[in-house]
Amino acid sequence: FPRHLLPVFFLLYLLMYLFTLLGNLLIMATVWSERSLHTPMYLFLCTLSTSEILYTLAITPRLLADLLSTRHTITWTACASQMFFSFTFGFTHSFLLTVMGYDRYVAICHPLRYNMLMSPRGCACLVAWSWVGGSVMGLVVTTAVFHLTFCGPNEIHHFLCHVPPLLKLACGTDVPVVAKGVGLVCIMALLGCCLLILLSYAFIVAAILRIPSAEGRHKAFSTCASHLTVVVVHYGFASVVYLKPKGPQSLERDTLMGITYTVLTPFLSPIIFSLRNKELKTAMTKTFLRKLHPQSS
User: Fold this and answer.
1) CA separation for the pair 90, 77 (Å, rounded)
2) How many other C-beta atoms lie within 10 A of the C-beta of residue 131?
3) 244 in the Ramachandran plot: left (φ > 0), alpha (ψ -120 to 50) or beta?
4) What are 149's strand-pairing partners?
């Protein structure tokens, strides 16, 4: 960034970071306080909010500190920790979005079996496996990268400890193998999640089109609108950032787009769920008014 614009970017990212934390905490508090929201869909939403808070905590505070600091240094351990936690919470987020797609598929395509398929134990298993899967991805990527030998310059041309800029600092015959292996594992995991979500929505759309009344079709689709919007935003930004061709002069642009993706996507998520989900929006308003006027409740 140009030095004279650093305070502007710091204030912008700080406000977005605080809004991300407050928005997700508000969603979690509303779900926990409203008994009508104690359903699998909102349990998954609570867990998704938790993963987004932890993801931003792993990256944004360091980014904000670097925007104000003149010395941008990070230790080997802190760099490895940042990579592990960012990949863990990032992939957990993707796995939870997939689970939420499956939840909507069961609710619309198999409503009579919903309570059996989405039992408390079943939901807990889906959430647990999402966290386990994210942790395994974080561990695999971090271990593979930090087992390499680093030589020569030790300057990371990025705002966080990310795989491509770190691979540029590594040397040895293992670097191309690790680069291809890590890339393949990450792309397969993300594409797998994306394909499962698309498959869920293919069945959902087919089931909705069979509903005879327009009101019934609208009601069924409205329960999926917020999740579908977040999926489009999440995978849309990710594909622009990570799947576009790399040019020789694209380093600064890639860094700026990476920051935008890292800060903007978690910022938009609570807004989308709050505005596109009528049930949650009503509950949040009721909770806010109850806190504002406790004597009237």
Assistant:
1) 20
2) 18
3) beta
4) 171
